[in-house]
Amino acid sequence: MQLPADTRIFGAMKRSFGMVLLALAAAVSPMSGCAPERPPNIVLIVIDTLRADHLSHYGYGRPTAPALDGFAETATLFTDCTSPAPWTVPSVASVMTGLHPARHRLHRMGFALPEDLVTVAEVLRDGGWQTAAVSFNPYIRPDFGFDQGFDLFEDHRGKFGASPDVAEMVHWVDTWLTEDPPQPFFLYLQPMNVHGPYKVPKEARRVLLGRPPSRRFKYFGEPMRAIMRKGRLDLREQVDPAYVESLIDQYDTAVRYTTDQVARIFALLSSRGLFDNTLIILTADHGEELFDHGGFNHGTSMHRELLHVPLYVKMPGQREASQISTPVSLLDLFPTILDVAGLQSRPHVDGRSMLPVLDDPSSAAGLDPRSLVYQCKWQKHFVGSAISSGRFKLVKIISNYERTSHGWRLYDVRSDPGEHIDLAENQSEVLERLRREMDRAISQNEEPQGPKPEDRRHLLATDHERLRALGYVE
Ligand SMILES: [Zn+2]
């Protein structure tokens, strides 16, 4: 996307922002038939590591989300939503702030979201919303500044081993709702079962998708570890297809299990009469590579399996399904949420509100086309950027786990949506045009004087075992 460079939101603006009197107008959606009289509750669910194309509503062959069918029948499905970064920390920072990674600059594990940035939770809390979050991702927690704006923030809790099960999150939500929190509320949820090692309870694995893993199956075992950590690309040929198949089985089972649990959250809202007047957004922070391009995990490339995320938006009062294929970004969530909430005053964000197309899906065709820019600076995984513009996507690799340095990849995503045919050599004019556009967008938005993420890596020391289990560290 074109990132405007003329806005500075930092420092003083944040301080004054909380003093702005925010209008508390109820959301009005023509789709609802009748406008709700109360400001809506807002539930934002970010399923960690859920790639869009493994969901049945996105055309996947397996029934990975049957429990969400009813929800999908009352929601708008965005078929082309991407994350501005292929891994958790910069992506969730963008969801929270509406800012492109080039602007918030939170690219590293153990660094904190700067206090000077304005989060969507802060704006909602200032506007009168009760704000609560539950995140089971070890990097999305108060230690790293992600609790800004939340009255209540429940973090991952586990010290060792993998993340808590999403069922614990459902239990937490049930208890919280039973206590009758003040309305309107904003609830943020980030479950982790779909993140490697794709854990689900044993009983569930037996009855869900695919075959249970063999005893020899090990997430991030060899040769996965050697390929991803040591750049041993020669070992790709030794990856057993049965292993990849089993990996996909475990991933899909975790997706199925998680969507079943998310449906329970929707049922809890319904049983308390809260579902109808709630804006519900269901999405993911990034996808997952399942050997699509010879790799695993995420944060390792700019390919579609990592950037394409699901996005369902159920407006307050919405009763019918709708589908929008216009490219949108997770950056768009911030302005959309505030528009639906009826909050007029807000900081600068890089996204654009989806409210007009949610109200009138036919207006999507008239939107200005825009380019979307992606950035990743995860050392030893992938350092570089990408831009997608119409039928082309250009990737700039500064370094990556494959030991590529300063390389370019160009894909015609209309004829080659899987991004397997590199056109960088024979489409030099397109490459040059997109290169200029991408570099301009990123350099205009890097803020050398802006807020700097603070190094809090010392807080990770006690979590080493847990992070190792998740594949983040050796
Ligand atoms: Zn993530």
Describe the protein's architecture and organization:
This protein is of the alpha/beta class and 474 residues long. It has one domain: Alkaline Phosphatase, subunit A, CATH 3.40.720. The chain contains 14 helices and 19 strands. Strands 6-5-7-1-8-12-2-13 form an 8-stranded mixed sheet, covered by helices on one side. A 4-stranded antiparallel sheet has the order 15-16-17-18, with helices on one face. Strand 15 (372-378) and strand 16 (382-389) form a beta hairpin. Helix 6 runs parallel beside helix 9 (241-271). The chain is globular and about 60 Å long. The protein binds zinc ion. Zinc ion is lined by residues 48-49, 87-88, 285-286. The site of zinc ion has 6 residues, from loops.
Structural class: alpha/beta
CATH class: Alpha Beta
User: Which small-molecule ligands are present, each listed once?
Assistant: zinc ion
Number of domains: 1
Mean pLDDT across residues: 88
How would you sum up the major sheet?
8 strands, mixed
Q: Which spans have pLDDT < 50 for at least 5 consecutive residues?
A: 1-36
CATH architecture: 3-Layer(aba) Sandwich
Strand content: 15-25%
Number of helices: 14
From the N-terminal CA to the C-terminal CA, the straight-line distance is 36 Å
State the helical fraction.
25-40%
DSSP summary, beta strand count: 19
CATH T-level fold name: Alkaline Phosphatase, subunit A
Global shape: globular
The CATH superfamily is Alkaline Phosphatase, subunit A
